[in-house]
Amino acid sequence: VAHRAISGVHVLATTTGDTTDGEAIAASVADPPRFGQVFDRHVDAIYGYLYRRVGRSSAEELTSETFARAFDGRERFTGAEALPWLYGIASNLIRHHVRAERRQLAAYGRVASRDAGGQMDDDVEGRMDAAAMVPALAEALKRLRLDERDVLLMHAWQGLSYRDIADALGIATGTVGSRLTRARATVREVLHEHGHLREDNSDG
Amino acid sequence: MDDLDLLRRMVGEAPIPDESTRARMRASLDERMEKAAAPKGRRSRPALVAILVAAGVGIGTLAAAAGVIRHWSETEPVAITVLPGYHGPGSFEGNTLDISNPEGVIASAAEFEATVAEFAPAIRLPSGHDFRPWVEHVERVADFTTADGAMRRTTVASSMVFVAECHWGQHWADADRVGDSVGKSLAIDVLSGIGVWSQGAGIDIDGYVVRILVQRMEDGETVTLQQFLGVNCGHTGSVIGTPAELDGFAQDLLTHALIAADQFAKAGGTYSGFGVLEAEKVAPVFAWAAPDFMPVAGPGQPNIAVADGQRLVLTGESESGTIYCVEVRSGATTYGRVVSGSGIDTDVVCEAGGWEAPSSSS
User: Closest approach of chain B CAs to the CA of A18, in angstroms?
Assistant: First the structure.
């Protein structure tokens, strides 16, 4: 499995040898243990996503549940790439754990300055800027509607394309675009309210 | 740096599970795969399959029913083939096909009421019960204009199912009081069906809530069942009682919440750190709330107003409208009512009176 991280975003090639996710899942209908390949390929990405969204204490439980539900629904999977499908299931589970996500967002705000050095990149100035903005970013994420937050964080944190997000959430690509636009506008608005963005800083 | 860059920097590199975490997560899947690979004798989820088949609802027929809300039946207490949130290629057990515009956001009280009216025929309530008290409660506490108050059509459906659970629990208690064994049996049957639906829908992932209800019914634990309903279902309108009874439920809730808080404090000698997360660990049956969490506490929810060192203030709203409180300060405990208006921009003020320390707690 090719699996590497670029700027915190997991990029996955979803084949092992000649076996695609779709083939492994199809084979697991008759031979259930074959589904283990899907777990092995994607557990890091799903765990990482859930960890960021709901925190460590809930991430383990929800990751297990994501793969359990995927396994139960494997007969109806028809695609080739499983990751968007798994992100969709994970995102749906988050909806039942809104409190855990709120706790995590609150935690981001609280630990921002303390953990900044360990979490940011080598750009010291950028690191300090970003650290200072974390409470405002957390506040912005809290203000978002769940569907907007799903789209924004799948894109920003997981690096999913519009197409993959659309597949994950079962919505049109255009809807992904409009939700992302609204979400980013809200983020910029909150950053502006907190004095982190000037009027002319309206990068889109 | 644009906003997307900032969001990426906010969380840094994605955490990777360590080997023991990975092994634990893999273990539950392995168990599932082993069961599936074992020779077919028993199915792991027969009840859901049985109910779907009995109701003549196969996955293949769901698409044909798109957008059509059916009426509940004897074999199907929830006749919405919907899995809240499971609506894309990531879904299973079918899609949200009975609900048109499943992700539609409710933007006003009028829309909320219309949505409830649309779904109500599909969700079975005991004869003579209805969703109106719950609707009125939601309209009192919800803010439909903010992201925090955002409610989707699927959320309304799943919430209505929970309300039905409370009403059927109360139906059992009422039937038990008058010796109506048929009514008790009906309540258990319907609740079991609702429980299966809720698990299939992913609302009640392990069936915990309904399992507790049914278990207490089958064990004939009337008092604890009534207490459970009183403290968990106050906001659903299922608990029909006099203001004094409703106040009693709120006071019971606080008494039990205090026991949970004391249990937490016993370990560390302080109430500091007793938040929603810790409270859920000690007493998961309660829907704990705290000022820094949404949604705000409503009836049936213990609210952790203050947990700081040797000081603790818990509040609980009665369906009658009175907000009760219990305050521990340096070992002394005050049972009272929240002074109107306090706790909004100031520290909550718990004024002694109105109720007393119970002589014993179950």
Answer: 23
Q: How far is A201 from chain B (nearest CA, A)?
A: 9
- For residue B36, give the nearest of A32, A57, A143 by CB distance: A32
Other CB atoms within 10 A of residue B103 CB: 19
**In the predicted model, is pLDDT for residue B40 greater than 50?**
no
Higher pLDDT among residues B227 and B66, named by residue: B227
- State chain A's mean pLDDT as an integer: 74
Q: Is B91 within 8 Å of A52 when comparing Cβ atoms?
A: no
Six-digit token string for B175: 């039937």
Query: CB neighbours of B263 closer than 8 A, spacing ≥ 6?
Result: B282
Pair of tokens at residue A174: 């255009």
pLDDT tens-digit map of B211-223: 777 877 888 777 6
Look up the ipTM and state it: 0.75
How many helices and strands (H and E) does chain B possess?
12, 7
Considering chain B, what percentage of its residues have pLDDT values greater than 70? 69
Which residue of chain A has the CA closest to B204?
Answer: A96
Average pLDDT over residues A53-78: 83
Whole-model pTM: value is 0.44
Residue B315, classed as helix, strand or coil, is: strand
B293 interfacial to chain A (CB closer than 8 Å):
yes
B250's CB contacts (< 8 A; 6+ apart) are: B231, B234, B299, B316, B317, B318, B319, B320, B322, B324
**Residue A114 touches chain B, beta carbons under 8 Å:** no
CB atoms within 10 A of CB B184: 19
| Cβ–Cβ gap A52/B14 under 8 Å | yes
CB atoms within 10 A of CB B129: 20
Give start and end residues of each alpha helix (H) in A55-97.
56-72, 83-94
Instruction: Characterize B44-83 residue by residue with b for buried, 16 or more Cβ atoms within 10 angstroms of its Cβ, and e for exposed.
Output: eeebbeebbeebebeeeebeeeeeebeebeeebbbbbbbb
